[in-house]
Write a structure and sequence with these properties.
The chain is of the alpha/beta class. The protein contains ten helices and eight strands.
């Protein structure tokens, strides 16, 4: 494991104690995440001052750590300029609308950063696997989605798409943990148990989704998230590294993403 992807100054890192069973220990995570959260506050100040718009979409397998990652990113941001969008299943009225309509109204205004905890890509994931949409609706989605995202970019939105991947064993462990932890039980849904049994079907759906909706202007970023802490750190670094905001600290804060954790999508097949 290359130290330079953990700390800006690897000589300060006690490598032998930084990891436990292959995962980053809490104290090292907290120290590095605090630096990144300070940079995220600077980013938000720049967004407000320049009237910019940032949209960050999180997709991935169940229990991959989407919500926890968003929580870490937004923890110290001003809630007046940062929002989390996590929509429930569509209402009867929403089912009569253009598929993207209920998402459009939640897009960022000038001066805002918006995080989507799942998004319109539900159609290519859970809706596809669980037969909540027709084949024609699914095919139409794959055509319209890249076009919509091109329009969002053209409108001035700074757009990120992250897909959090997790191993089958780690997903099983996390879902089991949720069952037995009263503070996490709310994360479980009636569909989780069914989804767990459809691992292979989801793998096929995600493989097609990524291959059909990865574009040069809105690329998919794949995040290996068996280690939640490393995933969060590297996602924060990736966002910050792509934006030239004011007072950016590249001397004392590492903004280089670890390629073992985060990479741009390149034709891959999920297993």
């Amino acid at each position: 494991m290359d130290n330079k992807y953990i700390y800006q100054r690897p000589e300060e890192l006690d490598v032998e104690n930084a990891f436990k069973e292959g995962k980053l220990r809490g104290k090292f995570y907290e120290a590095e995440m605090q630096k990144l959260q300070i940079e995220l506050v600077k980013l938000q100040n720049w967004v407000k001052a320049k009237n910019k718009k940032i949209l960050v979409i999180f997709e991935g397998r169940d229990a991959a750590g989407k919500g926890g990652t968003i929580q870490a990113l937004i923890e110290h941001l001003n809630p007046r300029g940062a929002r989390v969008v996590a929509l429930a299943k569509p209402s009867d009225v929403e089912k009569t609308q253009w598929y993207f309509q209920r998402y459009i109204k939640h897009l960022p205004d000038g001066g805002e950063i918006v995080f989507f905890d799942r998004s319109w890509y539900n159609r290519a994931g859970v809706e596809r696997v669980m037969n909540f949409c027709t084949d024609d609706e699914y095919k139409e989605f794959l055509i319209q989605s890249p076009s919509l995202e091109q329009m969002l970019i053209n409108s001035g939105i700074i757009f990120f798409k992250y897909f959090l991947d997790v191993s089958k064993e780690e997903q099983e462990r996390r879902l089991d943990e949720r069952k037995h932890d009263p503070l996490k039980r709310w994360k479980l849904s009636a569909i989780d148990e069914q989804s767990k049994k459809k691992w292979d079907e989801y793998s096929m759906a995600f493989t097609e989704m990524l291959s059909r909706t990865h574009t040069p202007y809105t690329p998919w970023i794949i995040v290996q998230s068996d280690d939640k802490k490393r995933a969060r750190i590297n996602i924060a670094r990736d966002i910050l590294s792509h934006i030239d905001y004011d007072d950016k600290d590249t001397k004392d804060v590492c903004l280089i993403s670890d390629p073992e954790v985060l990479r741009i999508y390149s034709h891959m097949k999920f297993k």
